[in-house]
Request: fold
Amino acid sequence: MANNSNDTQVSFPKRVVITGGMPYGNKHLHFGHVGGMFVEADFFARFYRDRIGEENVIFVSGTDCYGSPIMEGYRGRKEAGYTGSIEDYVEENHRSQAQTLKDYGISLDLFSGSGLEPAKPFHAKLSREVIERLYQRGYLMKCSTKQFYDTKAHQFLNGRQVVGRCPVKGCKSEKAYADECDLGHQFDPEELITPVSQLTGTTPELRPVENWYFNLPAFADDLKKLVDKWDSDPQIRPLVTKTVRESLEPPRIYIQEHYQETFDAIKDKLPPFKYFAPEGNQKSFSIVFNSWQERDDARTILEDADVRFRTGKTLLPFRLTGNISWGVPAPDLEDLKGLTLWCWPESLWAPISFTQTLLATAATGRYSSTDWHDWWCSKDTKVFQFMGQDNINFYCVTQPALWEALDWGLIQDTPIADYHILFMNKKASSSGKIKPPMAEDLLNHYTAEQLRTHWLSLALDQKAVSFSPKPYDTSVSHTDKKTGEQILTKDDPRVADPVLKESAFLTNIFNRLARSCFYGATRALDNHLPSVDPEPEVVKRCNKVTEDFEKACYHFNSTKALTIAEDFCREANKRWTKESKTAKEDPKGYEQALSNAFRALRTVTLLMHPVVPKGCEAIAEHLNIPTEVFFSWRHAEEGLPELVQYTGENAEQHEITPLPPRFDFFERHESQR
Reply:
């Protein structure tokens, strides 16, 4: 395997923290949460545990307990007759989320919640320390902004209590809230197009409020240096650097050409700007300012002149506090008292408080260090944060700047971002028109290992890809010639289920190799391992495939890693078929064929362990080799006879557990039988 000190191309850290995005505490998990993020994060958490030791890997996530989405969800449940408290409501959703993750084999070391025990006190303390530290270092700004107020409900509206259209140039989101849209773009509340109160359905008015903001624009140069560094980092995907660079554009305003005459009449009143004429088919010219403050001054002048415009993406002060009641308490600073933290900033440091929680509650010796600084501030540690593309602006723009501002020695994470996972070729969301299937419901049609394998094959690091499970496909397949009835795809037996394409490898190819080895050893070797060594070219091929798989994982290419393992397993099956037939009447030749097949099975099972852990661990258990030995990459180039020695036996003594007739390590779902 790649040597940590000598191979600079594939070098693994001493410790790894892996984080998964935090689902809101107002819902169960839909397929996008699991298939679009958690399964991939789990694949790499399992790989790194095998590769560098489980004591050196921490995988944390949790329920995002606070904020207006939770308040709105709770309000809806209360109106429907729910009698529990908001804490009960969040706890119930958290338990559902935790159970779903368990059902999918997501091996989190801790799945807690920002407002739930045992993480709640750790998170509240860290949140207070972050805000006080930013204040002491001069990076907090007290800003008076406009907030929506519902005159019919007689209350201020927060976050998702207001819905409109996103004002950011080029964004087509129809699901924009008070100061951000569902694609992660931020803007001022007064920019939101056609706002509607979700409490009363009326148009709210804007009233002034004061809050604390983080001076994000002060870190523009730091972010530019960071993204330049990321450009040459083979572990960071172009989706990340492209999105971050869009946020680093100078403050710009777009104005349609038919306002040119009005603009010319007032342009001398504007702060200094650069003018850019429309290019090609563009119908708007743009003006660029030196700072966001000057751009905001220009907005006021343009609004007074009835000139309609849109703003471009740029760095803006990042709101930290609000007046919502259900939130982490913010420390009282100056004359701003009784505020709470906006849920997005506190979710950025939640993985740190989750790490603190885990280390404080773990069994003695479980992790290589109980000091959270060794996991978040050490140069020999890497933090890999998994996210969807909607969250890049938060985790890859705001968070790095916050880490710099705090000056606590926090290492910059390695963001692993994926494109959207679509549903039937359309973007689905819990709050949108197209509702995604719930993750728990998919298990009525597929096994968890079938879905894990399919989702890892989608290459979401390259582009948005559709998840199109046949049981949910209500498109018309064809019209019955006899009855004239339209037959839906989900009811057409002639249509293959695209989700089962990859799982056929599990239930057919991988199963066949494993069963051939076990049944062959039972029949020919009395449940013992072959006494002859595998042929040198087989060992060489196994080691080469293992190295290729390792490199794919280093580059966070789970799809390529899966393909490497699958192709090798197919190759091993073909070799077994040929060699076993040739040696049908030759006991020694048959034993050699079994030895070659067992060596290949050992390698395939090691490589597929992060993909389908349950079935792979069953293979190791039937081989009667401890899983901590079998799956440790310290022994990646060792065959079964060498692994057996770690049990205190030699290969001649060691017996494997015979399989019952027609046994499957990877089963089809009962609905597919």
Remarks:
- The domain at 250-311 is CATH 3.30.70.2250 (Alpha-Beta Plaits).
